[in-house]
Amino acid sequence: MSHSTAEVLVGGCVLAGALGFGLYAMQVTGLSAAPQGYDLHASFRSLEGVSVGTDVRLAGVKVGSVTDIALNPETYRADTTVQIRDDVLIPDDSAILVASEGLLGGNYVELSPGGSPFFYGAGDRITDTQSAVSLISLLMAFVGGSPE
């Protein structure tokens, strides 16, 4: 009997450890069962380097993430949904842009706050957008030069 009791205790400890690790991983990565924020929508000409789960930053601090990207078949633009933390209020004259972490870094979405005393609410659309700048296009323009 003591042999099977020891096995049950060890199994229970392993299971408790696995559950604890899972909860810790969810907290660190920001995953949760219930959404904790509000959605904003934007339409970009190009979202190169951005995918679902990409960080949304304000002044370099993560304040949300990209939750949905879809091609609009009428405008051929990337319709994007971002989720912003509830405790972060974004002025309604703010811009949203695709920024790069550096020459070899990835892209992220940056919020550039305006000065309005009014704020975006859940489901609002940000109309001031700036798309990703293609590094290849910049290099080609530099190498090719511009005729003047």
Count of discrete structural domains: 2
Give me the number of helical elements.
2
**Helix amount:** 25-40%
Share in β-strands: 25-35%
How is the main sheet built? 8 strands, mixed
Question: What quaternary form is this?
Answer: single chain
* Order of strands across the main sheet: 7-1-4-3-2-6-5-8
- Poorly predicted residue ranges: none
Number of strands: 8
Q: Residue-averaged pLDDT, rounded?
A: 83
- Strand pairing plus helix content: what structural class? alpha/beta
Straight-line distance between termini: 91 Å
Shape summary: elongated
The radius of gyration is 22 Å
* Element-by-element helix/strand order: HEEEEEEEEH
Question: What does this protein structure show overall?
Answer:
This is Phospholipid/cholesterol/gamma-HCH transport system substrate-binding protein. It holds the Pfam family MlaD. With 148 residues, the chain is an alpha/beta fold. It folds into two domains: 1-33; 37-141, no CATH class. Helix content is 26%, strand content 33%. It is built from two helices and eight strands. It has helices at residues 2-29, 135-144; strands at 37-44, 55-58, 61-72, 77-85, 95-100, 107-112, 125-126, 129-130. Strands 7-1-4-3-2-6-5-8 form an eight-stranded mixed sheet, with no helix packed on it. 14% of the residues are buried. The model has no long low-confidence stretch (mean pLDDT 83).
